[in-house]
C-alpha cells in the first residue's frame, strides 16, 4: 500500500500530512486470502454511468421501472469485493447489494453449491414446503439455518424476504397473544370469532398492535410497513394499522464524552416504552427493534438499553422480536448483533434475511407454533434453494473464520476513520460503530455529494437516514480493502 500512498501524495504536493491509508498500510501477503483473482484496486475507465450503461438502462426502461437503478451490473466480471459495470469499471463495493452479499461476488464455494445435485433438484422441483417438503428438508435445516440459530432458539419458520420474515413473526405474536387470552392451545374458537373475522371485525380480528420505534425500518408489506418509520415515501397512500411508535435513543458522540447524557436518554426512552405498553389503546402483543437502525440512519443504542427492553417486555408479557435482517450473519463482528447485548434471556423471535440469502424467523417457545395447521402458511413457505445457499455461506464463514476477520477489519477501519474524522471534522461527524465489526457509519452535511463522487473514485457506497454514510462491506473485506477505502474517502473529501 505504500506505493498507493506515495502516488496519492504526488497528486497533492501541497499537503504535508500523509493520507490516513498510509498510516495503516498492510502487507501484500493478506491480499490473496479469500479472492486471489479479484482486482488489486478499483479501476475507473469511463464516466459512471458510461455509454453502455446508459444505453442498457434506456432499453430496460421500456419494460421495467428504472428510476431507482443505481447501475446495471456485469455479474460475470464481478469478483470478491468488486462490482463491475457494463463499461469496464471495477468498483470496491462497500454497499454489497444493500448489505445482502456476504462472502463475495462469484464465490467459488457457492458456485459449487449452486451446481450440486441437491440444488438442481431444489430448483426444478420447488416444493410447497408446508405440504410436500423434500425428504432431506430436515437435514438441510439442521445443517444450515439451525446450525447458526441464536442462543436459546431451536426452531425456524422460513419465509421469502425480510418483510415477509417480520410479517409472519407479527402474525405468530398475535396468535400467541390470543391463545393465552383463551386459556391455551386446546381452547376452540367460538362461532362469533369465526364469523366476525370474515368481516374483518372483532373478536375474530382483534385490535392488537406491534410496537416499533421512530426511524425504524422493518419492511414494506402491510404489517411490516406499519412498523416502518424511516421515510414518508415508504408509507404514503398505503393504509396502516393503528400501532404505537416509541422513541429510539438519540445518542451523542463521542460516546465516552457523553456517557451520562446518553444514559439519561436511554432511560427516558425505556420509560416511554413501558408507558406505551401500559396505556396504548390497542394492546401491544410484541415490541420489534433493530439492533442498529439501518435505513433510518444507522442509529445505535447501548447493550444496557436492549437489556432494559427485554426486561420490560418480560415484565408485561409482551414478546420481544429482534429484527436482524440487516445486522445478522456476521456484519457486526458476531454472527448475530444481539449477541453483543449479553441478554439474560433470549429474544422470543429473531428475524433474518439479506446476508443469509434466505429469510424467516427463529423461535424457541413451542407455543409460538400456531395451534392449528394452515394458520401460518403459504404455498412455498421459503425456498430450499436459498436454504442450501445459506448452508454454503455458513460453511464459507467457518472455513475462512470470517466473523473474526470482520471484527478485526472493523477495528482497523474504525481507527482509520477516526483519524480522518480528526482531520476533517466538518465532513466526518458522529462516527459510530466502534466494536461493531464493519457496521460503521458517520454523518456529513455533504453526504449526497460524497456518495455522488464516490463512483468516480472507484467506490460503491450508500447512505441512510438524513445525512448518514453507511458502510456495508462483505465478510471477506480485509485490511488492504480498508486502506483503499480510506484513501479514496479522503480524496473525495479533499475535492468537496
UniProtKB/TrEMBL annotation:
GO terms for molecular function: 4-aminobutyrate:2-oxoglutarate transaminase activity; pyridoxal phosphate binding. Its cofactor is pyridoxal 5'-phosphate. Keywords: Aminotransferase, Pyridoxal phosphate, Transferase. Transmembrane segments: none annotated. GO terms for cellular component: mitochondrion. It catalyses: 4-aminobutanoate + 2-oxoglutarate = succinate semialdehyde + L-glutamate. Pfam families: Aminotran_3. Belongs to the class-III pyridoxal-phosphate-dependent aminotransferase family. This is 4-aminobutyrate aminotransferase. It comes from Aspergillus taichungensis. The lineage of its organism: Eukaryota, Fungi, Dikarya, Ascomycota, Pezizomycotina.
